[in-house]
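quick q for whoever's on today - can somebody do inverse folding on this one?? i tried earlier but teh output was garbage lol. tokens:
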């Protein structure tokens, strides 16, 4: 009887810890946009940073997932798009983008978190971003304007090809396989 009670307590506590923390073993950031002739997608993926985020944490020591992204590490599919993307993000003056996900809170079908984004020398705080659970990952999507981010949309071919004012930012947090 005592063994069954002890085993039940262990299972309860293990499940309780899993509900209090989110173990991330891979992150991916995707920037999507449209131009006058089509769409583009630039992405960055990191598999070498493993971190644990705590839900409703009051401690700032383990409450955020922080990563630095070299702008040159974003891939857009070809060298022309890569070059335009780097130019738009002012990579020569600001070669690193900073992203921090913090303040995780549980919702009914999702989690919410705050995102600190430093891009092209500008700081942005996005509060209560919803992350939906999909196939072993949490995914948050934002629709941002180039003006809001302090970016100038680049154009090519004498202004014939222009980037639309709105871009989508997706942050994917892949959970550890258990």
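ok took a stab at it. sequence:
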């Amino acid at each position: 009887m005592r063994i069954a009670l002890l085993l039940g307590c262990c299972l309860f506590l293990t499940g309780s810890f899993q509900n209090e923390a989110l173990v991330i073993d891979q992150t991916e950031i995707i920037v999507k946009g449209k131009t006058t002739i089509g769409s583009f997608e630039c992405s960055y993926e990191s598999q070498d940073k493993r971190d644990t985020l705590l839900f409703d944490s009051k401690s700032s020591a383990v409450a955020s997932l922080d990563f630095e992204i070299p702008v040159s590490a974003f891939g857009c599919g070809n060298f022309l798009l890569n070059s335009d993307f780097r130019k738009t993000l002012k990579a020569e003056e600001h070669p690193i983008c900073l992203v921090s996900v913090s303040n995780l809170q549980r919702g009914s079908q999702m989690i919410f978190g705050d995102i600190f984004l430093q891009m092209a020398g500008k700081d942005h705080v996005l509060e209560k971003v919803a992350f939906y659970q999909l196939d072993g990952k949490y995914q948050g999507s934002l629709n941002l304007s180039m003006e809001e981010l302090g970016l100038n949309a680049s154009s090519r071919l004498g202004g014939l090809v222009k980037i639309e004012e709105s871009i989508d930012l997706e942050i994917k947090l892949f959970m550890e396989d258990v």
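fwiw The CA atoms of residues 3 and 9 lie 10 Å apart. also The longest helix spans residues 2-20. so keep that in mind when u check it
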